[in-house]
Amino acid sequence: MANLNRPARVNRALLAVLGLVLLAAGAFALVTHFGALRVLDPSSPVVPSLSAPPTWAYYAAIAVAVVLGLLCLRLLAAQAFRRPRPGTWRFESEPERGGTRLNGSVATEPLAGEITAYQGVRSVNATLAGRREDPTLYLTVGTEQGADLGELRERIDEDAVPRLRRALDLDALPVVLEFRLTTKTGARAL
Amino acid sequence: MIRRPRRSLPAALVALVVLAACVFVAVSGVQYLLGGRPWLTFDTALDTVHGMTWDGVPVLVAGGVAAVVGLVLLLAAVLPGKPIVLPLAPSGRDETSGATRRSVHGELRQTAASVDGVSSAKVKLRARKLTARVRTGRTVTEGLTGAVSSALETRLDQIAPAKRPRVRVRVKKTRSS
């Protein structure tokens, strides 16, 4: 199944590793400071006297800083991409005679249009995530005030999605639905 | 479907701090190699830490700060946080649903506020309990509690959260009789 909460996993892993390293280093400094742990003599200097580093060390330091800095930029950029990654699917029954490529966002457009027309729906955002073998349809539905979610879910599951599933020739298409209830009343509401 | 916070803020802060350190180191190194005056030379860095021993105050401060920051980052990673998306009751079909907690909260507040006789409403949505505090300008408040709670129950029926909270209503009069 595609990751539906994209940067969360990488954020948690990085924060946990960094937190553990910092906590361990800080704890080590503190116990050595108070002499509770005698790995290092508390009265010994923290940094032994060093001679000036050779020139290659500067190149190495710059290279490490640049790579680490680019990774930080990548992590920052990842925070902006929150929806699951839409895939491009290939249909190739006879690869030697060519194949068809289908962009996930093109495939979901009619579905989004259909669901938007339902009573009580204000906005729909559909993403077809994952590979063709294990796809997931990720739907964000904004509803008007007073919309009956049970009824909407039933219509989406039993009318809209099976149509897309048949069109894409899939055996199963799991759906993840996320509702945003707005307090706005629709133009169609009486 | 339940969705938890993404920890974007702590991750972005960490990335910014590390990025700043990287820029500082890289610029200093390039300045040195080009023969300019670096922001940070090796000698000044060595002078700062020279003569520092493990039982000195700077080690105490730095170690304490590192341990606290590390603990905060670890907690940010481990604690699940308030859910962003509340799961809805399973439908039995090939579908999982959720509704954003904030929008459910706003919807329930609106539901309570639009009951006849209610002048303003505040709701608190917890995992097991939904508390609505409503104010009314009426002098006779009999039946208002029931009206608000039945409106909320009806709306909860329509939303159908996986864990249905118990509804409690408190009425406050703005006018004394």
Task: Write up this protein.
The complex is a heterodimer of chains A (190) and B (177). Chain A contains four helices and five strands; from the N terminus they run H-H-E-E-H-E-E-H-E. With 190 residues, chain A is an alpha+beta fold. In chain A, a hairpin with an 8-residue loop joins strand 1 and strand 2. Chain A starts with 5 loop residues before the first helix and ends in a 9-residue tail after the last strand. Chain B has 177 residues and is an alpha+beta fold. Chain B folds into two domains: 8-78, no CATH class; 86-173, Alpha-Beta Plaits (2-Layer Sandwich). Chain B has helices at 8-33, 42-49, 57-78, 101-113, 144-159; strands at residues 85-87, 95-100, 118-125, 129-136, 166-173. In chain B, the strands form two sheets. A three-stranded mixed sheet of chain B has the order 3-4-5. In chain B, strands 1-2 form a two-stranded antiparallel ribbon. In chain B, a hairpin with a 3-residue loop joins strand 3 and strand 4 (129-136). Chain B starts with 7 loop residues before the first helix and ends with a strand. Classes of the chains: A alpha+beta (190), B alpha+beta (177). The interface between A and B is large, with 79 and 73 residues. Strand 5 (175-181) of chain A pairs parallel with strand 2 of chain B.
Which key features would you list for this structure?
A: 190 residues; alpha+beta; Alpha-Beta Plaits; 5 strands; 45% helix; 17% strand; B: 177 residues; three-stranded mixed sheet; two-stranded antiparallel ribbon; 48% helix
